[in-house]
Amino acid sequence: MTARIYISKHFPSYFYDEKSLEIERIIPSSFLTSKSNQYQQFANVSCYYNMDRISKEFIARNGDCNIVSLGCGLETAYWRIASKEATFYELDLPEVIAKRKEILGKGEKEVLLPYSMFDLEWTKAVRKDKPTLLTARGVFEYFEVDEIITFLLELKRILPGAEVVFDCPNSKALGYTNRYVKKTGNQNAAIRFYVDDPSEFAAKCHASLLGHETFFTKTREVVRKGRNLYTEIAMWLVDKKKMGNIIHLRLGGNYGEKI
Description:
Number of strands: 7
Order of helices and strands: HHHHEHEHEEHEHHEHHE
Oligomer: single chain
Radius of gyration: 18 Å
Shape: globular
Strand order of the largest sheet: 3-2-1-4-5-7-6
Strand content: 15-25%
Helix content: 40-55%
Distance between the termini: 39 Å
Structural class: alpha/beta
């Protein structure tokens, strides 16, 4: 949230999160204190920016549809996207959902799901007769590759034809990413999940690869001014070496297919 607030204040034409700015005043300052530099703020928000864009495109194509946020935390995409057509399912652990409701409230077209994403009971609440997009921001990274493949194969069985978009590093970026995670105070939150070859990963999930782009592909096009030299170089390097990626899959099957 710190990154969303920072970028909203300094680069509002690129990314503006009114809901996060609204609740800034009620969040303890200790939670908002950030050790991140400008590049790290952009790295965090670029994920939101890209997933917002993909979600809006999905809604534009499908109209009445489902957007499922895996590990939603205090994510505010529901208010940023402000769709009158899509239903937003916010999924996280029960204690997180309780805190989310306390701080953010609940939108008219939001469904709050107090589950671990691996407890597939939550899928019973999702309308199977509507197109579904699942978004995972900073979620898959904390699990092993095989765990995520198994999870996506199960979702393919339950929600055939659904799409999923997630962020991930490649194997070369794991060391840097884990050093950054420790710097922010998360000593026990090591990053384990990575994807080097999106096509190969899609095949293991029996899924179609709909899209693959690096974190800053769009950001560097949109934000032309205000980035410092370190941010410029770091963005270029991450994109060149594909160290940060947004991957978009379609799970096998058709909407409404019988299980």
